[in-house]
Amino acid sequence: MKSLKYIGSFVAAGLLLTGLASCNDFLDTTPSTSVADSKVFETVSGAQSALNGCYYQLRAYNGGGADRSDDYGIPSIQMISDICGEDVMSNGGGWYVYNYNYWGETRGDIFRSSQLWTFHYRLINNLNSVIAYIDDAEGDDTERNYIKGQALALRGWAYFGLARLFQQTYAVAKDMPGLPIYTEPTDEKTEGKPRGTLEQTYQQILSDLTAAEPLLEGFVRSDNYPNVVNQSVAQGFLAEVYMVMNNWQKAEEYAKKVLDAYPLTTAEEYTNGFNNHLTKSWIWSIKQTEEQNMGDYSPFAMWYNGDRQCWTFACFILSDQFGDLFDEDDIRFKQFERWSSGSEGAKKEFWISHKFRDNEECRGSMVVMRADEMLLIAAEACAHQGKDAEAKSLLWKLQDLRNAKHTESTGTDLINDILKERRKELYGEGFATFDILRSERGLERTGNHLDYGGLFTFPPYSWRLIYQIPSSELKNNKAMVDDIWPAGDQNPFSGTYEPKR
């Protein structure tokens, strides 16, 4: 069953997140804080209410306009990234089996592309109103800066998400088509914009995030609202963006800024199960409550582990090739169990994980960013700069906490080992497909993926890993040419991109 969605704060502010105005709109042209509602921005408190609506959208049902059980904003995007990678498999149940089996959901004429596009642009459009009007809002200057900083950081994050979903990675495609950039509120009369270049998209991302960082200096959020962006979250965004851009000096700098503020996840915290937003290493997370939750479609309901006392789809399991990456005494491997399904003579064996276990109320919190990710960014950044000793020193801190053997490699082998450590530490947290793309290594599934219909091999730069622009966007945005690149603005569905080195 699905839980009722809480909209009280929107009603109080006289605001509602709107869906697509019509099937002919190129994006959500009537945001909850549109020009027509500009009176809400006369005060800082009104602007805060509008920003609260943006935060609600990050995890709200139907945030991407798909009216589907897997349309829940950030948590859904995380699960899509993992199930489309090499380590998490689908045991059936829910819509994610179609992502896992590459049914064709990256096509522009299928719902997933439109869902992801709409989620991000709807958020951007609402944030644009906050940014456009906040400077003139009556109230405290410091509060005004905090609101603007949060809105800018979230807009930069949203464009970053779109850039990673709808184009090849920056390092090889910065001159390729990027995204339509909107920095002002739109309405039904707004003309569509062209894609520009990916370089221009990343410059907008950096502009937003670097402007947000100083505005959030001194801002302290409540423990009850771990989804709110503070300065460390904005710095974490910058570390992630610079990593994708292969700006390793900046990636290291910003990852270390965050590490100065947050400790690593302890062995006890790791083995207790990922469900508590008060975990000290969690930088950005989503707290579920009785009023605001994902019901039966949270990540906890997807994992096959037997620890959930509520409904579960028993969908997410782990591949044998992933289990082979771990040392036997690694505490992360000790969370695995060998299970089987099927009748006698047709049984399938697989690994299940106890990493994601719901709390007693079946309202566990969901992690989006934690300090351990920042350590791995810093380690990889050091390795790419030839600072192998520092990279290994950082990596060993994490490996000691996990009772894993120290990595002793150097050079390219060290970089590959750090990428492997990311897989072992961060699985199920939404990084799988994005890491495959940015590391330029392609997708290679082997072993018991065969038992679940997911035995795929895609070479580096495969277009199958990149979403096409929604067909409705190309049809209605007159600034785009509805044809396959390079003749038009549509990403290819198949084949391989050949970077110009």
SSE topology:
Layout: H1 8-13, H2 44-57, H3 74-83, E1 88-90, H4 96-100, H5 111-133, H6 141-166, H7 170-173, H8 198-215, H9 231-244, H10 248-259, H11 267-271, E2 282-286, H12 299-302, E3 316-318, H13 320-323, E4 336-341, E5 348-353, E6 366-370, H14 371-384, H15 388-401, H16 411-426, H17 432-438, E7 443-444, E8 457-458, H18 471-476
Antiparallel strand pairs: 1-3, 2-6, 4-5, 7-8
Helix pairs in contact: 2-5, 2-6, 5-6, 6-8, 6-9, 8-9, 9-10, 10-14, 14-15, 14-16
Question: What would a concise description of this structure say?
Answer:
The chain is mainly alpha-helical. The chain is built from 18 helices and eight strands.
What does this structure look like?
This protein is mainly alpha-helical. 40% of the residues lie in helices and 6% in strands. It is built from 18 helices and eight strands. The protein has helices spanning 8-13, 44-57, 74-83, 96-100, 111-133, 141-166, 170-173, 198-215, 231-244, 248-259, 267-271, 299-302, 320-323, 371-384, 388-401, 411-426, 432-438, 471-476; strands spanning 88-90, 282-286, 316-318, 336-341, 348-353, 366-370, 443-444, 457-458. The strands form four sheets. It has a two-stranded antiparallel ribbon with strand order 1-3. It has a two-stranded antiparallel sheet with strand order 2-6. Helix 2 packs parallel to helix 6 (141-166), helix 5 runs antiparallel to helix 6 (141-166) and helix 9 packs antiparallel against helix 10. Residues 1-36 have low confidence and may be disordered.
